[in-house]
Amino acid sequence: MARPVIEAPPTTPAGTWLEGEELARRAAARTRRKRLALLVAGWAAMLGIWQVAAYYLPFGTLPNPLEVSVEMWEIVASGALVSDFLASVLKTFAGFGVAVLIGAPVGYLMGRYGYWRAFFLDGVTVAGTIPALTYAVLSLIIFGLSNLGPVLAVALVSTPYVALNVAEGIRGVDQNLVKMSQAFGRSPQQIRREVFIPTIVPYLFAAVRMSFAVAWKVEALTEVFGGTNGVGFQIRTRYQLFDITGVIAWMALFIVFMLLIERLLLRKLEQRVLAWRPEERAAR
């Protein structure tokens, strides 16, 4: 007697969807583990090269990572880190605020209207090609030894990045979407708020990312030349004392702080603001 054939129950659409979600989560977990492993390997390689260079260079030329780490801990324990980093952060954010207030409207006009683009483009392009060192020196000449010099330098460096990226974002808006909004009776204010602004937000974050590192550098450079507080001032003080370990320790703290700001603040803020985008949901 032949055995009855037992057929497997057909997979329901809901089951297929759940399996797909599970596979997507596993793939995302593997990607995160791979990124973490590569991140650790990259840092290990950099520290290894540093250690080898410190070992083979003449004594006193380059301190090794352990010596710098001890110096960094002493700076943190002394309390100097909080006061000086707070001063640098406030000046940098103030400069960024000025850059956004000026660059975003200029970029909107450049991207929205051809005649305004002709008016602003050359000036913004020239401003973006001027070396950051020139802005640092110019700010010190104008304001001297004050906190306004670094703020002006950061604003001058960052404004062209913001303007150009916002302009590209506006030019990338789907004009068919604009026409459809107009056909459905949307007001210019509604189109600006619901079509243009969501489109330029990713470009604005890209501008912040590109100008962030440059702005920090020019802010610290301005403090090195003529600051009265902040990270750059501390680097200049250690340099005058021929304390190479102290100089590198403050530089390392500066790098660590920038990475924390970029990854814990800017990246999280970008993910929250752009959570509606499919690629952001997939990254989660």
Account of the 3D structure:
- The protein has 284 residues and is an all-alpha fold.
- The chain has a single domain, classed as MetI-like fold (Orthogonal Bundle), CATH 1.10.3720.
- The chain is built from 11 helices and no strands.
- It has helices at 13-56, 65-78, 80-112, 114-129, 132-143, 148-171, 175-183, 188-226, 231-240, 244-273, 278-283.
- α3 (80-112) runs antiparallel to α4 and α5 (132-143) crosses α6 (148-171).
- It is flat.
- The N and C termini lie far apart (55 Å).
- The model has no long low-confidence stretch (mean pLDDT 79).
- It is found in: Cell membrane.
- It comes from Geodermatophilus ruber.
Share in β-strands: under 5%
**Number of beta strands:** 0
**H/E element sequence:** HHHHHHHHHHH
Note the total helix count.
Answer: 11
Name given to the CATH homologous superfamily: MetI-like
How is the topology of this model organized?
Elements lengths: L12 H44 L8 H14 L1 H33 L1 H16 L2 H12 L4 H24 L3 H9 L4 H39 L4 H10 L3 H30 L4 H6 L1
